[in-house]
C-alpha cells in the first residue's frame, strides 16, 4: 500500500477523497453541535445570568458522539443507510425519508468540499507526514469557516490547538533546510506572534477611529495559527488575499442582496481560505510575485 500511494499519487488522492467524504459527514456534526456545546457550557458557568431558559438547549448528553443524528424538522433518527455521504442525499432526493421536508444542500456540499480539498492537499504533498498535517489543517479550517458563518464565532477549541500543533510541527523542520511544510521554530514562533498582533493592532486602531469593533478575537487566534504553521513571510499575502476577497463579497452582498452594512460579515472564512491556498501554493505564489517585480 505504501508503494502504491508513493508511486501513484493519484491513488493516494483518490483514497483520501473517499475517506474525506466520511470526515465531511462528521464535520457537519461538528459545525452544528460544537456551538451548542459551547453555549451549554457557558450557561452552566453563568446560569444566574442566562437571559433565556435552559430548556431551549438539548437535554441530556449532547456532544460530537451522542445523541444519534436526527432530522432537524421531525426529530426522526437517521439510520446508517440514510447517512452515507452524498449518496444518501441523492437517493433520498434531498428529502427526509420520514417527513419529506427538504434537507439543506449544504450537508452534501460540505462533504464534497471536504473530499475535494483533502484530495488536493494529499496530491500537493504526497504520501507522508506533510500530507497528514495538511489534511488535519484542511479539516479544521472547513469546520472553523462554517461555524463562523453560522454563529460569527471561531471556537478556541479549534484555533488554539492549531497554534500549538503548528509550533510543535516546527520541531520537525529538517536540519538540512530542505523545503517542507514544517518550517523552522524561529519562523513559526515569529509567525504566531505576528499573526495575532497584526490583527490585534488593526482591531484597536479601527475601534479608536470608528468606535466600532471590526472583527473578533477569534480572527486573531486563527491568523496566529496560520502564522505558526506557515511562518511570518506568508502572512502579508494571507491578509491581503482575505481582505480583498472579503471586501468584494461584502460589497456584493450589500449591493445585490441589500445586506445591512451594520450587520457584521464573518472574516474567518476568508482567512481560512487564504491560509489554505497559502499552505498549498504560498511559496509558488510568492516566487511569481517577486519574479514579476523583477
Considering DSSP H and I runs of 4 or more, what fraction of the residues is helical? Answer: 55-70%
Summarize model confidence as the mean pLDDT: 86
Shape: globular
Instruction: Specify the structural class.
Output: mainly alpha
Give the biggest beta sheet.
Answer: none
- Domains, number: 2
Radius of gyration: 21 Å
Distance between the termini: 45 Å
**Would you list the SSEs in sequence order as H and E?**
HHHHHHHHHH
Topology:
Layout: H1 2-7, H2 9-45, H3 87-91, H4 106-125, H5 129-151, H6 156-169, H7 185-210, H8 217-230, H9 235-256, H10 268-293
Helix pairs in contact: 2-4, 2-5, 4-5, 5-10, 6-7, 6-8, 7-8, 8-10, 9-10
Model description:
The mean pLDDT is 86. The protein folds into two domains: 1-127, no CATH class; 128-294, no CATH class. With 294 residues, it is mainly alpha-helical. The N and C termini lie far apart (45 Å). The protein is 66% helix and 0% strand.
Write a compact overview of the structure shown.
The protein is 66% helix and 0% strand. With 294 residues, the protein is mainly alpha-helical. Helix 2 packs across helix 4, helix 4 (106-125) runs antiparallel to helix 5 and helix 9 (235-256) crosses helix 10.
Supply the key terms.
10 helices
Amino acid at each position: 500500500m505504501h508503494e502504491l500511494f508513493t508511486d501513484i499519487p493519484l491513488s493516494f488522492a483518490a483514497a483520501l477523497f473517499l475517506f474525506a467524504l466520511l470526515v465531511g459527514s462528521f464535520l457537519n456534526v461538528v459545525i452544528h453541535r460544537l456551538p451548542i456545546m459551547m453555549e451549554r457550557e457557558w450557561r452552566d458557568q453563568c446560569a444566574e445570568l442566562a437571559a433565556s431558559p435552559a430548556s431551549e438547549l438539548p437535554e441530556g448528553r449532547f456532544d460530537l458522539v451522542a445523541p444519534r443524528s436526527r432530522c432537524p424538522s421531525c426529530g426522526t433518527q437517521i439510520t446508517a443507510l440514510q447517512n452515507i455521504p452524498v449518496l444518501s442525499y441523492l437517493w433520498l432526493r434531498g428529502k427526509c425519508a420520514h417527513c419529506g421536508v427538504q434537507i439543506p444542500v449544504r450537508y452534501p456540499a460540505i462533504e464534497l468540499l471536504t473530499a475535494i480539498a483533502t484530495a488536493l492537499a494529499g496530491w500537493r504533498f504526497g504520501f507522508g507526514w506533510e500530507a497528514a498535517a495538511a489534511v488535519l489543517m484542511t479539516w479544521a479550517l472547513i469546520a472553523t469557516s462554517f461555524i463562523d458563518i453560522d454563529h460569527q464565532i471561531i471556537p478556541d477549541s479549534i484555533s488554539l490547538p492549531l497554534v500549538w500543533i503548528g509550533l510543535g510541527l516546527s520541531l520537525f523542520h529538517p536540519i538540512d533546510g530542505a523545503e517542507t511544510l514544517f518550517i523552522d521554530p524561529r519562523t513559526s514562533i515569529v509567525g504566531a506572534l505576528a499573526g495575532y498582533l497584526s490583527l490585534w493592532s488593526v482591531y484597536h486602531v479601527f475601534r479608536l477611529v470608528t468606535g466600532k469593533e471590526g472583527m473578533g478575537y477569534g480572527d486573531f487566534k486563527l491568523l496566529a495559527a496560520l502564522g505558526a504553521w506557515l511562518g511570518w513571510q506568508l502572512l502579508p499575502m494571507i491578509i491581503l488575499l482575505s481582505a480583498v476577497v472579503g471586501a468584494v463579497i461584502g460589497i456584493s452582498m450589500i449591493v445585490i442582496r441589500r445586506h445591512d452594512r451594520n450587520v457584521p460579515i464573518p472574516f474567518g472564512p476568508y482567512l481560512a481560505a487564504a491560509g489554505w491556498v497559502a499552505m498549498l501554493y504560498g511559496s509558488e505564489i510568492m516566487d511569481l510575485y517577486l519574479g514579476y517585480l523583477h
